[in-house]
């Protein structure tokens, strides 16, 4: 479960969603149907991130790429615009290839 949770944090959440200024100050809900898991991730202005699973990490956004770091090497993927209420289904952020639904909530 620890390995799965770490991959989920990286998913944090956000393939396919983004903003011109990155995720700064935004909150996303991540749902992983195959694991019956749902949690929220908050991207703080100071470059830190937290989620409702009790995990913490950091993030950077540069040239359209979001990198999320928790315990290990950063996980980086393209990050595209999204508005509150928009969702995307992806497996790009998952360490084990699990499909997840990522929804911007704030």
What does the model show?
With 106 residues, the protein is mainly β. It is 10% helix and 40% strand. The protein has one helix and eight strands. An eight-stranded antiparallel beta sheet has the order 6-5-4-3-2-1-8-7, with helices on one face. Strand 4 (56-62) and strand 5 (65-69) form a beta hairpin. The longest helix is centred in the first third of the chain and has 11 residues, at 2-12. The model is unreliable at 1-20 (pLDDT under 50).
Sequence-ordered SSE layout with sheet pairings:
Elements: H1 2-12, E1 27-32, E2 37-43, E3 48-51, E4 56-62, E5 65-69, E6 75-78, E7 87-90, E8 100-104
Antiparallel strand pairs: 1-2, 1-8, 2-3, 3-4, 4-5, 5-6, 7-8
| Helix-and-strand structural type | mainly beta
**Mean pLDDT, rounded to whole units?**
82
What is the end-to-end distance? 28 Å
How many helix segments? Answer: 1
Residue windows where pLDDT falls under 50 for at least 5 positions: 1-20
Overall 3D geometry? globular
What spatial order of strands do you see in the largest sheet? Answer: 6-5-4-3-2-1-8-7
Strand fraction: 35-45%
Whole-number radius of gyration? Answer: 12 Å
Element string (H = helix, E = strand)? HEEEEEEEE
Q: What's the main sheet like?
A: 8 strands, antiparallel
Number of strands: 8
Helix fraction, binned, reads 10-25%
């Amino acid at each position: 479960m620890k390995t799965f949770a770490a991959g989920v944090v990286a998913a944090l959440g956000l393939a396919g969603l983004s903003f011109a200024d990155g995720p700064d100050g935004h909150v996303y809900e991540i749902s992983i149907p195959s694991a019956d898991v749902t949690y929220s991730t908050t991207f703080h202005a100071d470059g830190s991130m937290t989620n409702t699973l009790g995990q913490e990490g950091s993030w950077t956004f540069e040239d359209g790429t979001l990198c999320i770091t928790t315990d290990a090497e950063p996980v980086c993927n393209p990050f595209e615009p999204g508005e509150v209420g928009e969702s995307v289904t992806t497996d790009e952020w998952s360490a084990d290839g699990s499909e997840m639904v990522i929804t911007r909530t704030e």
